[in-house]
Amino acid sequence: MGVSIFIQQVLNGLTLGAVYTLIALAFSLVMGILGILNLAISEIFMIGAFIGFSLIMSGVPVWLALPGAMAVAAVISMVIARIGYEPLRNASHITPMLSTLGFSMILQNFATNTWGSDPMQLTLEGWLDTRFHFGLVSLSVVQIVVFAVTLGLCVLTALLIQRTDIGRGLRAVAENRDVSRILGVRPRRMILVAFALSGLLAGAAGVLVGLHYSVITPYIGVDIGLKAIAVMIVGGATNIWGALLAGPIIGILEVLTVAYGGAAMRDFIVYGMMIAILLVRPQGLLGGSSKTSGGRV
Amino acid sequence: MILSVHDLKVNYGAIPGIRKIDFDVNEGEIVALIGANGAGKSTTMRAITGLLPFQGRVVYRGRDLAPMHAERNLANGLALVPEGRGILTRMTVEENLRMGGYLRRDKAQLETEIVATYERFAILGERRSGIAGFLSGGEQQILAIARALLARPKLLLLDEPSLGLAPMMTAQIFDFISEFRKQGLTVLLAEQKSKHSLAIADRAFLFSMGEVVASGAARDLAEGSLIRNTMMALV
Amino acid sequence: QAEDLTGKTVKFGAIVPASGPFAEWGRANTVALKMLEKQVNEAGGINGAKMEIVIYDDGAKPAQAVSMLRKLADDDQVLAVAGPATSSAVEVAFPVANQLGIVSVSQNSSKPGVAAANRPWGFRNTVDEAKLARLVVPFFAKTFDVKKAAIIYDAKDATASAAGAKIFPQILADNGIENLDADTPISFNTGDLDVSAQVTKLRSLQPDAVVLSADYSQAITVLREMKRQGMKTPVVGSTQLMSSAILAAYPELPIVAPTTFFAGLDVPAVKTFTDGVTPLMRAEKNLPGTIEPSLFDANIYEIVSLFAQAAKEAGVTAAPADLAADRTRIRDYMASESDFVGLGGKVRFAADGDAVKSFFIVQAKDGKWTSLETACSSPEADACAQ
Amino acid sequence: MMSSYQAGLVADGSILLLGALSVYVILSTGQLSLGNAGFMAIGAYLSSWLTVSAGMPLTPAIVVSAAVSAVFGLIIGFPALRLKGLYLAMATLGFGEMVRTFFLNFEPTGGAGGFSGMEHVPLWYILGWTAFVLACVMICERTRWWLEIRAVNDDELAAGLVGMNTTVTKLMAFMTGAAIAAVAGALLAHQNLYIEPGNFGFDRSTEFVLAMILGGSSLAAGSIVGAALLIMLPELLRDFVDWRIAIFGALLVAVLLVRRQGILDRNVFGLAKFWRRAN
Amino acid sequence: MANVLEFHDVDQSFGGIKALTDVSFDIPQACITGIIGPNGAGKTTIFNVITGAYRPDRGSVRLNGQEILGLAPYRIARAGISRTFQNIRLFASMTVWEHMLLSQAPRTPMLSRILPSRAVAERGERMMELFGISAVRDRIAVSLPYGVQRKVEMARAYAMEPKLLLLDEPVAGMNHDEAEDLRQTLQGLRDKGLSILIIEHDMRFMMNLCDEMHVMNYGRKIAGGRPAEIQRDPAVIAAYLGEDA
Ligand SMILES: Nc1ncnc2c1ncn2[C@@H]1O[C@H](COP(=O)(O)OP(=O)(O)OP(=O)(O)O)[C@@H](O)[C@H]1O
Ligand SMILES: Nc1ncnc2c1ncn2[C@@H]1O[C@H](COP(=O)(O)OP(=O)(O)OP(=O)(O)O)[C@@H](O)[C@H]1O
Ligand SMILES: [Mg+2]
Ligand SMILES: [Mg+2]
């Protein structure tokens, strides 16, 4: 009994961690590379969840609702890039962060007015509602979908950033816009690409969260978003794989704290651990060491 | 004529950067821009490259260049080695060189040229996977020039290339450049040390207070007392 | 005694959370108040005077609630204020009401002891959760034969955590029910999406019943997770559970809660109110098309109705010079034994500022609330007599 | 004569201004703190406990709370020395959330149920503190010591190599910021007469940053404008009802776009100086 | 003549790169000492070791007989060593004038940093005059032309009242005449008792300026002595100067 409950809790934690991972990836695409914290990602995630919900409720199959919601999320993200980031690129890095905060307010207000502030609930049917039982442990099809999509998107993103010209171009723009331009990189386009990718990931996370928990409100973004930022930081913002490592760590830590300690202490433990990790590894678990920041006298 | 500049004018907010610059560069030449601190050499180069908004005309290979289109200008063969080198300090030496060929389609050819660069500049070869930001000043300057040449430019703009280079290295760099010249490279050079640049340049233009105040064959300028006199008069 | 006020305007204020996480409450409240304003004025107003309700949004934020209370009292010169809604806002607003000398009556707040700490101007048209729980739990225990129960509550919500951490454990003990998580209370935080760990833990305790102390919007998350994990234990909670949204969360499960109002209640006054307000609410663009009036709509409707009655009977003059006197009149009227009849029956205010009214123990069944029993929030005999 | 509504807004604005200044002092050394609500919570709870349970008069209670909060500033400032940019911001955010969760679980000050029993403070008292703190910061801004703070922001390494003790500078900034935030918290507690952990969340910390950046992050006077704007705007937008927050967000973005260095910047004063010299 | 600085047996490596191997030299009081060498030879690294920016693997650095190796950079600066940077490092938000005020702050007590001071202002003015930058006093320093920024850096370094001034390629970006002016300025300072250590690739400038010179190659010191001797040293010619110099 104790063991199967424990396994069940670990599975719960992994699911939560997968969600964190996806959103953390969305954050790290703009933060790790461009160095700005796009706070609106939390809200893009929330909008993604609502769009996915609405599509599924109106009878669209899941395999179509997922890309649909991802696309909408990507478009919103690109709009934010053009209006909220581009014109502010020369200001201090806090200014674009605050302009994305402005966008969060708009998106949240929009969602409240469109879908209401009360929880929206979805009833799953057919294969999505299937669960597998292994003794006392149970695992749902949706959970498996969540794991698979998370892993797949992670690998794709990492390949794109590490193995292609796009990744190098992005890093060049992030470091020095003028220099990247004289090397032939188009900063505006690059930034749009980064934001779009980040929107896609956040949108996907939204749909998966909607499917898994089947209740959403316009306010789900804030807390999960903050946790996802913590996951990104713990993993190391500059390394795509960091989120894949840190997501499950934080997810499981959180669930186990709740299970064997108490929910009241949860945030204390999670943020405490984040600070502790930062003290030991200031760039996060997998982030390049400070040596790669390239400063010398 | 590969480049001609007419009535070029750039302001930094309320501060005038350059007032009225006219000059031209012929295919295959080395042209030097010389002048004191703040004369406007760097500003001119940045404007031509497409990093600054400007007034006036810049005609490159028969076409007018619009301001602020550095990416497009590079695609048309116009590369700049900026003042202060413009190394991507967080990337490795190798990645910096790769970025030099960012727009090139012949990636295989690029790889062999990168290897050739390593052979020519052993320092870069030794440090290929090191972070570029940790190179010494002169090493970074070499990297910047090597990187610009990997873009296969038709017109190379060098802003104070000898800055921080040891005498022998300066000679080596200019050897390298003259090799490319044989393959059709044209060079526009900005230098403080007029002696140095006049030695290798075909023609030169003397800048002062944002205007061109003298021009001529480099040899004449080098020998004549024109530079000295003009500078004395203006300081 | 009352003078004729024809040509004058009697103004009341209302503070509702029309934006933020409880936007729906505030927006529905607004519809109910607009309806009331129309009804009163069509019926001849207040001794001939036109009644006007000035409604402000506080976004469920304490600071804004206070600002709005001040604005209503100072700039709009209203005679009394309905609201604010949330306990956090009330905690901050009531002291200001006392300072300014204006009645403030909350339509939602059920955190124990808030009005009692802010006499004489703070009132709540709600019943303290402690009083309700004391009657609901025994009834529930008997109906579902409960020997051992587990409690889960929202630790971040002041009301829910007070009830979940203090009141319910005490009441379970008083009724001889074993509290399975007494040592390591199971809780979560407002806004949590993931309560899988908590529910897994609940499940592992194998209780006969679950006590769920949370606001309905949070409770839904828990119910959904229980459904996902296939947990079929009956649930009992506080008034905070009351909402039509709860009904869809886990229709197969018996959910029991106390309330002073629900839309399907078979009482003439309630029927009239519900029939009148439901189409109006559903016609609002910013509210869902399936919305039903909630407990809070009924409460705020009652509050301002009571203001109107007080103004009428206590004889306000609605003259600017008498503002303070008029406000005192309304307060005194509210504090006294009156014969005000609300939607569910007689309503009066006890010395601690909370309402004394009859309430119903209801159970979610087939997508509706069904009343199982009627009781009175006051232990005194016939305090709630019709 | 001010109505009590206006007076209330002024009080809220003053407290927000103090919060903004607390972020400003820390940010001047290039460190972004997203956890000042945590220091504010310490100030609010400690001063309230001192006045209510220990019977201490308010002013000494505020001074004590500010001092204790400064010690916490030092404790969080030390690890912060190792962190850069948004990593630091996240660590401070984590600290803020930890403080909030701590008070959520700390029964002696009421836990989730909050704490009350404080005496109301008059408006002039709040204004007095605000003016005092603002004056201190603005005077410091004109000294050479402030140049050191700016130097640490501009280029920490170079600052060290030209002889500045950057560690001390950064820690002092953290301590000062923490103390100012604590004053803001104490005033808030004695203005609202009730505090709960939810008052000191992430949104409060971002509000401080917002007020400061909107007003202009290169000088303390900017925060006055930023705080005033943040307090006034929501009130002015009441007519928009349902879309109020969205319009607020849009205006926020618009202001940032139009004045990306903030509404006020050093040049505004530079121009004034220039003008004086020209005449 | 006493030595201001004794730099002994220093090794410095970065991962696999040996930037300095067993380097030793002394800097005499009131002398201009030059360091030359090919790119990447380790010249700037010597500066970084002296100023505490790097911690060498081995060795000793003494200022007026006091060991300074291992001290925090700001302590070394306060002990009387100030420097300029090869990659100019000015404070991006500050005007030239603010640089002059700032650089005098660290060595004074806290209180005097808060109160305005006439002495500080006067010294600031003098520094700007000395390096010829009074005309741009209210400009943001980083928006100035490259060569002028170098002068601001030197003025900032000298304003700290150092015993030893370290200059890393100061005439890069200056023309011949400006370099000549600078040479005279520096020699004037030396005559007043300042010790200067300078790195520069402009040989003509160095020959005229330095009292003594050290030559680096691949992290090792390959020669040291009077400029005229250095110029004739075959090892130096092979490694650095080239045949035609
Ligand atoms: N970013 C800037 N902001 C304001 N003014 C600038 C900026 N960059 C250059 N200037 C001004 O423009 C003028 C020309 O400068 P520029 O850098 O082009 O000169 P230069 O000839 O390259 O000098 P140097 O030889 O020192 O590099 C100078 O007066 C300079 O102060
Ligand atoms: N922090 C560091 N990390 C890695 N390598 C370094 C670091 N600092 C210096 N180096 C290496 O040490 C060697 C010496 O560098 P240094 O900057 O001292 O050269 P230099 O003599 O000043 O050359 P230049 O004339 O080009 O400025 C170089 O190869 C450089 O790449
Ligand atoms: Mg230049
Ligand atoms: Mg060097």
TrEMBL record, chain A:
GO terms for molecular function: transmembrane transporter activity. One of its GO terms (biological process) is amino acid transport. This is Branched-chain amino acid ABC transporter permease. The keyword Lyase does not apply. Its main location: membrane. One of its GO terms (cellular component) is plasma membrane. Keywords: Amino-acid transport, Cell membrane, Membrane, Transmembrane, Transmembrane helix, Transport. It comes from Paenirhodobacter populi. It is a multi-pass membrane protein. Belongs to the binding-protein-dependent transport system permease family. LivHM subfamily. CDD domains: TM_PBP1_LivH_like. Pfam families: BPD_transp_2 (PF02653). It is found in: Cell membrane. The chain crosses the membrane at residues 6-29, 36-56, 62-85, 97-116, 136-161, 191-216, 228-256, 268-286.
UniProtKB/TrEMBL annotation, chain B:
GO terms for molecular function: ATP binding; ATP hydrolysis activity; branched-chain amino acid transmembrane transporter activity. InterPro entries: AAA+_ATPase (IPR003593), ABC_transporter-like_ATP-bd (IPR003439), BCAA_Transport_ATP-bd_LivF (IPR052156), P-loop_NTPase (IPR027417). The keyword Protease does not apply. GO terms for biological process: L-amino acid transport. The keyword Zinc-finger does not apply. Pfam families: ABC_tran (PF00005). Residues 3-234 form the ABC transporter domain. Keywords: Amino-acid transport, ATP-binding, Nucleotide-binding, Transport. It comes from the Bacteria. PANTHER family: HIGH-AFFINITY BRANCHED-CHAIN AMINO ACID TRANSPORT ATP-BINDING PROTEIN LIVF. Belongs to the ABC transporter superfamily. This is ABC transporter ATP-binding protein. It comes from Paenirhodobacter populi.
Automatic annotation (TrEMBL), chain D:
The chain crosses the membrane at residues 6-27, 58-78, 85-103, 123-140, 171-189, 209-233, 240-258. It is a multi-pass membrane protein. The keyword Methyltransferase does not apply. It holds the Pfam family BPD_transp_2. It comes from the Bacteria. It is found in: Cell membrane. InterPro entries: ABC_transp_permease, LivM-like. Keywords: Cell membrane, Membrane, Transmembrane, Transmembrane helix. Its main location: membrane. One of its GO terms (molecular function) is branched-chain amino acid transmembrane transporter activity. One of its GO terms (cellular component) is plasma membrane. This is Branched-chain amino acid ABC transporter permease. The lineage of its organism: Bacteria, Pseudomonadati, Pseudomonadota, Alphaproteobacteria, Rhodobacterales.
From TrEMBL, chain E:
GO terms for biological process: D-alanine transmembrane transport; L-alanine transport; L-isoleucine import across plasma membrane; L-valine import across plasma membrane. The keyword Methyltransferase does not apply. Keywords: ATP-binding, Nucleotide-binding, Transport. This is ABC transporter ATP-binding protein. PROSITE patterns: ABC_TRANSPORTER_2. The keyword Lipid metabolism does not apply. Residues 5-243 form the ABC transporter domain. GO terms for molecular function: ATP binding; ATP hydrolysis activity; L-isoleucine transmembrane transporter activity; L-phenylalanine transmembrane transporter activity; L-valine transmembrane transporter activity. GO terms for cellular component: plasma membrane.
